């Protein structure tokens, strides 16, 4: 039983070997004939790629029609008696009020003041040490740390908002 399956396997291997040799020999003959000018093109045509048919385009969509205006009478103007009507008094216009000042940054006098402010600023950061180190650098250069744990960067001015890393990311948290 085992020898029967072995012999079948051997015969299959020999068949595959001969088939590949024959097909490669045919290709060599075609290539030689093409070089010699006997054939303009190889006899074997390349297999065309299978392209799925494209679906038909969707039907055009009609734009919605605007609702019709309600039918009714236009408001009638007040009757004129021949006397000039005084215009209604206008309320006094107040000048624009300046917005309330935003959060005030804590005062930084020395580099020692930066550490507690930066620890407070970075308390919720996922990489606290990295945040504190960057914040301390910004604090020393700009003499300012924004209030809160996030945002309010514009309070410290252009020095704080424009400082970037080598990768052009904002340096100051």
UniProtKB/TrEMBL annotation:
Pfam family, one: GASA
InterPro entries per the UniProt record, alphabetical: GASA (IPR003854)
This protein's UniProt keywords: Signal
Top-level division of the source organism's lineage: Eukaryota
Region annotation (Disordered) ranges: 55-99
Signal peptide: 1-24
Similarity field: Belongs to the GASA family.
Name of the featured protein: Gibberellin-regulated protein 14
